[in-house]
Amino acid sequence: MDAAFTEEQHAIRRTLRELLHKRSGPDEVKAAVRTPPGYDEQLWHQLAARLGLPGLALPTAYGGVGCGPTELALVCEETGRVVLPSPLIATAALAAPLILALGSERQRSTLLPALAAGELTATLVVPDGRLATALALTGPNDGDWAGGGRAGGIQARQPAPDGGGPATGRWRLYGEAGQVLNGHTAQLLVVAAHTGGFARSRTRLFLVRADGGGPAGPPGLLRVRQTAMDETRPQARIELRDVPAELLGRRTATRRRSPRRWPRPGRRPRRHWPPRRSGWPTRRWPAPSATSGSANSSAGPSGPSRRCSTGSPTCT
């Protein structure tokens, strides 16, 4: 196994290092973190246009470069070398791989080209600070990383249409999450939420367009930037109050139980006797007499039928 970098990987590293040396010095970093988005938007679009950093690990069919996780790790290493504030990790390392792996074809063709071009930024929203658990960095990922129980975390439900009836395909999200990386500026939120109530709860991923519904986002969405120890990695608290969302991936149809079939009127229902178990004693009736007629040759619970001297069968 050859662990050395290829010429293409060396070229990506060298080109990015030269560009960041000119545009991301100490003074530029300090000025970028004090802006409302927390990073230099012009430099971000330049990195997306010249090097294709947001779509480096995305397939070319969706507007990406077509490289793999090794090239993405090299890029993250170089941006961390100069402490570059950017939505690279939140967009290219957290949100985009989930959309590529779990999204439907319509979601991929709509969202991934915009993410690869740098026109759209995204992030992963995991409540209760369980991002490390979701990424399996601090232990096994058992799927319980969207909050706890019936209350707490983020809950998702399908509202029933007016007048009752079954739930529709629309989803609504309730809850809050803190320490969301680039959560105050991300235009697309990939939210982990509980579905199915308390007894049948499971974690599913939803898409929330934070740039829809005006400059403040959709109604019910509140995003507040938090104070972080590392200013180059801005974090935010996100509150969801009846926010419309879309399920990530194809919607699976719910299996319906077949209705119970009742017997028709005038017909007796079938009796399903239990199968004979091994070891149960079986009762054998004695064989009929050879001289008995065919009409009375069957054996009953009282033994073979007998005839009187008159020829009529006995009743006792």
Describe the structure.
This protein is of the alpha+beta class and 316 residues long. Helix content is 25%, strand content 17%. The protein has 7 helices and 7 strands. The chain has helices at 7-23, 26-33, 41-50, 69-81, 88-102, 105-116, 131-134; strands at 122-125, 154-157, 171-181, 188-195, 202-209, 221-226, 235-247. Strands 1, 2, 3, 4, 5, 6 and 7 form a 7-stranded mixed β-sheet that branches. Strand 4 and strand 5 form a beta hairpin. Helix 5 packs antiparallel against helix 6 (105-116). The longest helix is centred in the N-terminal third of the chain and has 17 residues, at 7-23. 28% of the residues are buried.
Shape: globular
Beta-strand share of residues: 15-25%
Mean pLDDT: 80
* Weakly predicted, low-confidence segments: 253-260, 294-302
User: Which structural class best describes the helix and strand composition?
Assistant: alpha+beta
Summarize the structure.
By secondary structure, the chain is α+β, with helices and mostly antiparallel strands. It has helices at residues 7-23, 26-33, 41-50, 69-81, 88-102, 105-116, 131-134; strands spanning 122-125, 154-157, 171-181, 188-195, 202-209, 221-226, 235-247. 25% of the residues lie in helices and 17% in strands.
Topology:
Blueprint: H1 7-23, H2 26-33, H3 41-50, H4 69-81, H5 88-102, H6 105-116, E1 122-125, H7 131-134, E2 154-157, E3 171-181, E4 188-195, E5 202-209, E6 221-226, E7 235-247
Parallel strand pairs: 1-4
Antiparallel strand pairs: 2-3, 3-7, 4-5, 5-7, 6-7
Helix pairs in contact: 1-4, 5-6
